[in-house]
Amino acid sequence: MNPKQADKLATGVLYTVAGIIIVILASLLGFILFQGLPHVSWHFLTSPASTFEAGGGIGIQLFNSFYLLLLAMVISVPIAIGAGIYLAEYAKKNWITDLIRTSIEILSSLPSVVVGLFGFLVFVLQFKMGFSILSGALALTVFNLPLLTRNVEDSLRQIHFTQREAGLALGLSRWETVVHVVIPEALPGIITGMILGAGRVFGEAAALIYTAGQSAPALDFTNWNPLNIASPLNIFRPAETLAVHIWKINSEGIQPDAAAVSAGASAVLILAVLLFNLVARYAGNRLYKKMTAS
Amino acid sequence: MDPIREAMLKRSRSAKLERRGRLISLFCIGLIVVIVAGIFYFVASKGLATFFSDGVNLWDFLTHSVWSPGVKDAHGSPQVGALPMIVGSFGVTFLSAIIATPFAVGAAVFMTEISPKVGRKILQPVIELLVGIPSVVYGFIGLSVVVPFIRSIFGGTGFGILAGTFVLFVMILPTVTSMAVDALRAVPSHYRSASLALGATRWQTTWRVVLRAATPGILTGIVFGMARAFGEALAVQMVIGNAALLPNNLVSPASTLTSVLTSGIGNTVMGSLENNALWSLALLLLLMSLFFNIMIRWIGKKGELK
Amino acid sequence: MKKWLNLVLILAAGLMLTACGAQSQGESITAVGSSALQPLVEAAAEQYQTDHLGVFINVQGGGTGTGLSQVQSGAVAIGNSDLFAEEKPGIQASQLVDHQVAVVGITPIVNKGVGVDNVSMADLRRIFTGEVTNWKQIGGKNQPIVVVNRAQGSGTRATFEHWVLNGRQAVPAQEQDSTGMVRSIVGSTPGAISYVAFSYVDKTVRELKVDQVAPTDKNVTTNTWKIWAYEHMYTKGQPKGLTKAFLNYILDAKTQDKLVRKMGYIPVTDMLVRRDATGKVIK
C-alpha cells in the first residue's frame, strides 16, 4: 500500500469514527429529548416540586442549579486561574511541583460521594454552614478544582514562548505578561475547561446530596433580600438542584408521575447545559476579541 | 536625593505588581494543596482505622473475596475482602479506556486535521453537552437499552462488566476527546507545514508528527478519562449488577469500589467497622489512581518527542 | 483581566459577609436520615410550615446510618431511621429517644414473567439464601432466579432478613441502595426478585403473597403479614421546643389519618399489635 492509499484509507476510517460518535451522541441526546420534551411545559418549568402528588414542577430546582453553578464558578474559577498561573509560569521544575500536579490529578478520580461526605463533615458540620447552597458550592469547588486547574495550566502552556518573550521585551513584568498577554491568548482553552466544569456541576448529584441537601423549600421570588430565608438569593438555604432532584425521584420518589418528571427534568437539564454552553462560548468569543488583537 | 535616583532605588510599580501577582498565584496553589492534603488526610485516617483499630489484616483485605463487613467469619474477624471490587474497578476502567481511546483520538484528529469546521460547529458542542448529563440518566439509559441488548446477545442477566464498560465508554468519551482536541490544537502549525513540505501525506503528517507531538497531552486526557471512569458510581452501579462477587466473565454481575462505597455509605454509622471498611475502599481507590497516574506518566515520558 | 478578578473577589467577599448575618432568621431544625421516611417528613414539614410562619424545618436524606450517627453526635435535631437504634451497631440507643411515626410493610416483588404469585415463607428463605435457583423448583416457569438485594446495612434489608431469613446469611447477589433502582431492575430483568415497601409497588412489577397472605395494610395491622417495620424519628434526650411541637404534629391523630395514609405509609394509630426492638410482639 503506498502512502497515498494509506492516506485515503485513514481518512475514510476517521470519517467513520467521527460518524459513529455522532450517531452515538445524537441517539443519546435524541433519546433523552424525545422521552422528556413531551412532559415539559411552562407549568412544569415554573411550579415547585411536589413530594407525593402528581403534577409537580421543577421551577425551584432549575433556579437552584443555575445559582449554585454561578456561586461554584465564582469561587472556583479565580482559584483555578491563580493556581494554573503558578503551575504554568512560576513553578520550578522539581519534585514538589510534580507531587502537587500528581495529587491534583489523583483528586479528580475521587468518587463524588467522598467529596460530598468530606463537604458534609467539614463545611456542613464543622463550619456550621448547615445544608446550604454555600456548602454545596464549596463541595463543588473541591470537586471541580482539579480539572479546572489542570485545564488552565494546559491552556497557558500552549501559548508560544515568543508571546511571553515579546511581553517581557516590552518591559512588562512576568505577572503583567501573564495577565495581559498570555491569559487573553489562552482564553478559548480556559473557557472550554470552564464549560466542561460547568457541565459537571450541572450533572453532579452525589456530592450535593450531603451538602446542598435534597429539599427545595418554597422561594419567594419577589424577595431579593439575601438575608431572608425565603429569598432566592440566600446562600444559607438548602437547595436541591435539578440533578439531585432527578436522582431523588428515581431512588425513593413516590409521585405517581415520577418517571415523567424524571424524563422531563433530564431533557430540561440538557437544554440548560446547551444554553449555558452557547452563552459562555459567545461571551468568551466577545471577550477574546476584545482582549486580543484578532 | 534627586527624583531619578529615588525612582531607581525604589521598587517599580511593575515589580510590586509582580510580587503581588506571584503571591496571589502562590496563595491559590497553596489553597489547593491544603484542600488536597485535607481530603487525603480525611480519607486515610478513616480508611486506615480498619487495619489499625479494627484489626483487619491488610493482606486479607486485598486478597479475600467475601465482602460482608457486618458478618464475622469462623475465626471471628470481619469479612472484608475487597478483591471482587478491585477486579471490577480495574476491569471496567481499563476496558472502557481501551475502547474509548481510539474513538476519542480518531474524533479529535477528525476535528483538528480533517474537518475543523464540522468539528467546531457540530462535534464540539455536542461533546460538551454530554458532560452535563447526570450519571443517573446514563444509568437509566444503560438499564433500559444496554443491559437488555447484552442480555439478548450473550444471555445471562445482562448485568456485568461489559454493560459497565459500554456506559463508561460513552461517559468518558467527551472528557478524553475534548482533551485530545486541545492537545492536537496545541501542536504548532509549522510542524505540519514542515512535514507537508517534505512531501508527506496528510495521514503521514498526522500519524508521525502531530500525534507524536501531542502524545503527552492525549495521555493526560486518557488519565482524566480513566479517573472519571474509576470514580463514577451511580451509573455503573445500575448496570454492573453491583454484586460483590468475583466476575466469571464479562457478563456476570460484578461490582466496583465506588459502587459498593456509594451504596453503603449512608447506611452505616460513622466510626463503626462497616463505615471504616468503606473508607478503606476509598483509600484504595486513591492509591490505585496514583498507580494509574504514575504508569501513564511513565509511558508518556517514553513516547515523548525528543 | 485584573479588574474582573478583583470584582469577583469583592463579590465573593460581599456574599460571605452578608451570609454571616443571615442565620438568625426564625427558628429552624434539621432532620436527617432514612430516605424511605424522607418523603413523609418532608410533606409534614411543608404543611407544618404553612401553618406556623417563621418556622423552618430542614429535611434531608442521607441514609439511616447517617441519621442515627448525626443525631447521636448532636449535629441535627432529629435522626430518621428505618430501624430501632438498638439494631444498629455503633449507636448508643440509651441516649436516644424513639418516636415511632409510621409503619411500613415490605413485600417481595418479582418480574411479571416468573409465573408465581404465591410463595411459602420457607421457599422465600431458600430463594434468598441461594438454595433455590430456578423458578420451576417452586412451581413457576423454567427461568433462573435473579436475586436483587438492598445494600448492606439498609433498613429495608435488615427488616426483610430479620423476618424472612431467620438469621441465615443471604446469598451474595446484586445490591442496590434505592427502592426506585430495585423496582426498575426487577421490572426489566426476567426472573428477578427483590423486596420493597408496599407504597412502591406499581404495575411494572408483581407483588407476591407469602403463605397465601396478601401484602395489605390490613394484614400488617394485625401482624398476619409479618414483614413490616416502624419508621422512627430519634431525638437525643427528650425533645424540646420546635422539635417537640413538630413531632407532636406528626403523631397527631389528624396527621396520621390524613397525610400518613395518603402517602402510602401505615399510621401507627392503626396498629393492633406492637413490637419491640427484638421483634417480640407486645399487645
Automatic annotation (TrEMBL), chain A:
Residue ranges of domain ABC transmembrane type-1 in the record: 62-280
Keywords: Cell membrane, Membrane, Transmembrane, Transmembrane helix, Transport
Subcellular localization, as worded in the UniProt entry: Cell membrane
Protein name in the entry: Phosphate transport system permease protein PstA
CDD domains, per database record: TM_PBP2 (cd06261)
Record GO terms (molecular function): phosphate transmembrane transporter activity
UniProt family annotation: Belongs to the binding-protein-dependent transport system permease family. CysTW subfamily.
Topological type in the membrane: Multi-pass membrane protein
Keyword field contains Cell membrane: yes
GO cellular component: plasma membrane
Coiled coil: none
One Pfam entry name: BPD_transp_1
Chain ranges passing through the membrane: 12-34, 66-87, 99-123, 129-148, 258-280
BP terms from Gene Ontology: phosphate ion transmembrane transport
TrEMBL record, chain B:
Superkingdom as given in the UniProt entry: Bacteria
Gene3D superfamilies: MetI-like
Keywords from the named record: Cell membrane, Membrane, Phosphate transport, Transmembrane, Transmembrane helix, Transport
A GO term from the CC aspect: plasma membrane
Transmembrane segments: 21-44, 86-110, 122-147, 153-176, 209-230, 277-296
Cell compartment(s), UniProt: Cell membrane
GO BP terms: phosphate ion transport
PANTHER family: ABC TRANSPORTER PERMEASE PROTEIN YQGH-RELATED, PHOSPHATE TRANSPORT SYSTEM PERMEASE PROTEIN PST
Biological role stated in the UniProt entry: Part of the binding-protein-dependent transport system for phosphate; probably responsible for the translocation of the substrate across the membrane.
UniProt-recorded name of the protein: Phosphate transport system permease protein
Organism the protein comes from: Lacticaseibacillus brantae DSM 23927
TrEMBL record, chain C:
Superkingdom as given in the UniProt entry: Bacteria
Localization annotation: Cell membrane
Keyword Membrane: yes
Keywords for this protein: Cell membrane, Lipoprotein, Membrane, Palmitate, Phosphate transport, Signal, Transport
GO-annotated molecular function: phosphate ion binding
Mitochondrion recorded as keyword: no
Record-annotated PBP domain positions: 23-253
N-terminal signal peptide: 1-24
Coiled coil segments of this chain: none
InterPro entries: PBP_domain, Phos-bd, Phosphate_ABC_transporter
Recorded topology in the membrane: Lipid-anchor
GO terms of biological process kind: phosphate ion transport
Subunit comment: The complex is composed of two ATP-binding proteins (PstB), two transmembrane proteins (PstC and PstA) and a solute-binding protein (PstS).
Role of this protein: Involved in the system for phosphate transport across the cytoplasmic membrane. Part of the ABC transporter complex PstSACB involved in phosphate import.
Family that this chain belongs to: Belongs to the PstS family.
NCBIfam families linked: ptsS_2 (TIGR02136)
Protein name listed in UniProt: Phosphate-binding protein
Gene source species: Lacticaseibacillus brantae DSM 23927
